[in-house]
Structures are given as C-alpha cells and as structure tokens.
Amino acid sequence: MTQRFAIRGQTLAFKADPFEVAPEDAISFDSDGCVVVAAGRIEAVAPAHEVIARNPSLPVIHYADHLIMAGFVDAHIHYPQTGIIASYGTQLLEWLETYTFPEELKFADPAYADQIAELFLNELLRNGTTTASVYCTVHPQSVEAIFMASKKRGLRMAAGKSMMDRNAPPGLRDTAQSGYDESEALIHRWHGRDRLTYVVTPRFSATSSDAQMTAMGALWRANPTTLMQTHIAETQAEIAWIRHLFPTARDYLDTYERVGLIGPGANFGHAIHLEPREVDRLRATGSGISHCPTSNVFMGSGLFDLEALRQGTQPIPVGLGTDVGGGSSFSMLATLRAAYEIAQLRGNSLHPIRAFWLATVGSARLMRLEKLIGNLAPGHDADLVVLDLKSTPVIAQRMARATSISDALFVQMILGDDRAIAATYANGQLVHRRSAGPGLVHGSPSVAG
Ligand code: GUN
Ligand code: ZN
C-alpha cells in the first residue's frame, strides 16, 4: 500500500456530541470529500476538489457515492463465544452454564484459541469494526491468541483475561493470586505494545470471591492506564444472586465500587436494571456503560434506558457493544437497529446521527481512545469503513427516496448489515474488501493517480 494516498467519496465526521447539540449540527458531511492518509494516520479531511488541486499526483481510491467514516468501535464483545452465537432457548444464567462455559473450556488449547481469534477478527473487519473491547477466557493463552492475531493485522484492539475463582467449572477457574499474576504478566507483555490495550476483566461479581475482587481492584490501581470491563445489572435473576452472594454490599455496583473497580476507563456492560444510587455513582465517578441491544433482546434481559442515562449536565459515557455470543450479530449496523427498537419500546426515538456517534465516538470515548480513533479527524489513526449505501435492492430503492444524510444513515442502520461494508481500512491498510457477489455490484473502487 502506498504510504500517502487519498480515499474519495462522501465523508462523515463528527464535530460535536449530538446528545449535546442538535444532531444535524454535530456532523460535517461532504458529498464529495477526500480522506488523506499518510503513514497510517489521517492527514486531512477536505473537499475532493481541494485535495486533488493541492496534490495532483496523489493516488486516489475513488469510492464514488459510498460513505467513508471512522471504523466502528465495539465496546463489548466475547471472542471465545463466536462458536456459540445463536444458541437457543435460555436466559443469562442458564445460557452461561449450558452453552458458554463448555465452549470457553476449549480455549485451554492454544491452537483452538488461535483458530477462533482469526475467525473472529475476519468477522469484525467484514462488519467494518476496527477496534473492540474483547473478553477472553480465563486462560492466558486465549489473550495471547487475540493480541497476536490483532498485532499481525496492525489493529487497535483492547482485550483481557476473564477472572473467575468461583461459580464456574474447575477448568475455568483461577485464584485471587493466579488471576492477579497472570493478568499482570499479560499487562507487561502486551499493554501499550503496538496498538494494543489491556483491559482488567473481572467477568462479573458472581464468579469472583471477595479476595479476588480485592485483588482486581489492586491490579487496576497498580496499572492505571489499562481499562476495566465487567458486567452489571443485566437480568433480575442475576441481581438477586449478587444480593445473596454479597449480603453487605449496598447494591450490585457496590461490589465493584468498594474494591476500587469504578471510575474513568471502567466499562460496565448492560446496566439495564440499575438502582438510583448506582446511576448517581456511575455519573459522579465518570464510569461508562456499554449498551448491548441485540444481546438484551436475544436473551430477554430487558430494555436499556439510554435517554435517562445520557441526561443531565454530567451524562454517563455510553458506547455500543454487540456482546457476541449473547448478542446475535457482529454487525454494528444491526446493533444500531436493535438500539433503535429498544428506545422505541421505551417511548423514545434514537436519532440516526446519535446512533452512529455512539457506535464510533461514544465507544472510543468510553475506552479512553477518543483522541486516536472513532472519528474522521486529522491526526487520528486511519481506521476507516467504506459503506455502500445501496448494498441490497431494497436499500437501493429506499435510498432513492432519502432526503438527507440523517435519512440515509437511518436507512443503513435499519436495513444494513455486512453487505453494506464495501471496505475496511486499519492503520491505513486495506484489511477487508467485500467480494462481488449476486446483488453486490457497487463494490469496485476505481484507482487513479
Ligand atoms: N455476564 C457474565 N458473563 C457474561 C457473558 O459472557 N455474557 C453476557 N451477556 N453476560 C454475562
Ligand atoms: Zn458480555
């Protein structure tokens, strides 16, 4: 790949938070723009005629009327659950026992972990997702596999070893001490190397003893530039179990809070059934939430209240996650559709500009990566997705009636999926290009210069 080149098409960037200003005022949209890429970074985003006049010999990859935007950022996903996506008939706690734990046991085998890590990254890139916050299993080799595979592809990726020392099968348990030591060794080996970030990962309070929770708090304090991810308040049965396991805790969040697993860089998955005190504490401490809508409907967990959590002068940072394999799709477009549907069931309509912001800037901010990814901005990593806005016949005919960029984005999030992803770039490299197939006739860019 040429060191310096431009990608031309329609361009979409964010210049403000669309939850704070009128959504249409939050974007910069150019119907014929160029993203100039140099040494893996975005050098400039400008009207195509200006870029071409200033750089007449610059190679230009022209995606015609496709939409170029920042790659999606999936704030919550489990790579070891790739194999059990679409497992029938259970809700969270039974689903963990029946499908998840048996599959995660297989990651004791590094060859299996390597194989699934490759499959998983292919799937992320096919769906235009360039960064994710990834749960691994309890096995350090599962973390090695995803970091090694991400490094090979030049991806910005965040991941961590799940820690569990109770309420899990023996082959999936560590101890307070071994969980600490193994995580610390992984931090030293991977955190900050190339484009990789370590995430301290207590799976959820139900699978960690008091001693392990305390150790994880100490680990995160000792490594403050790492992130922290876990689950909270996903189902009523889970909350009742936590109350039983931690009788002295004020609520679910307190099981994390009292050991220091709270604050900026903390990423709490789901957060559907929160108590008012928990909302106040998340808000006051700058802790974040990943909203996982396809998972919440697939597992029957409940309806996330985005509107309430983003309200006020101190909104809680919210990103968007697929939560595969509890979630039913790798596609962030499908995830946006589910977020829209959940908001509708709560009596709100999620504006498409807010939705796309959540799937990019929102998740990046939650992961403290906002200065590097999630937007088309000079100096950001050149992690990009090229959306074919007419990827199926029904989308093409609906797009012929689209009245605005908001409307076009809404069509994509309601009807689009992996077929809309014409190309994905990471670190300025083409890492996925959709192959032409029946009905996919829009995917061939022309290269000039
Ligand atoms: N809570 C604890 N573990 C998990 C998991 O793997 N998936 C989901 N959705 N919730 C969890
Ligand atoms: Zn999860």
Give the CATH H-level superfamily of the largest domain: Metal-dependent hydrolases
Average of the residue pLDDT scores: 96
| Percent range of helical residues | 25-40%
Instruction: Please describe the biggest sheet, giving its number of strands, its sense, and whether it closes into a barrel.
Output: 9 strands, parallel
| Overall spatial form | globular
Overall tally of structural domains: 2
User: In terms of structural class, how would the helical and strand content be classed?
Assistant: alpha/beta
N- to C-terminal separation?
14 Å
The rounded Rg comes to: 21 Å
Bound molecules: guanine, zinc ion
CATH topology of the largest domain: TIM Barrel
Number of helices: 15
Q: How large is the share of residues in beta strands?
A: 15-25%
Low-confidence stretches: 438-443
What's the β-strand tally? 17
CATH architecture of the largest domain: Alpha-Beta Barrel
Specify the CATH class of the largest domain: Alpha Beta
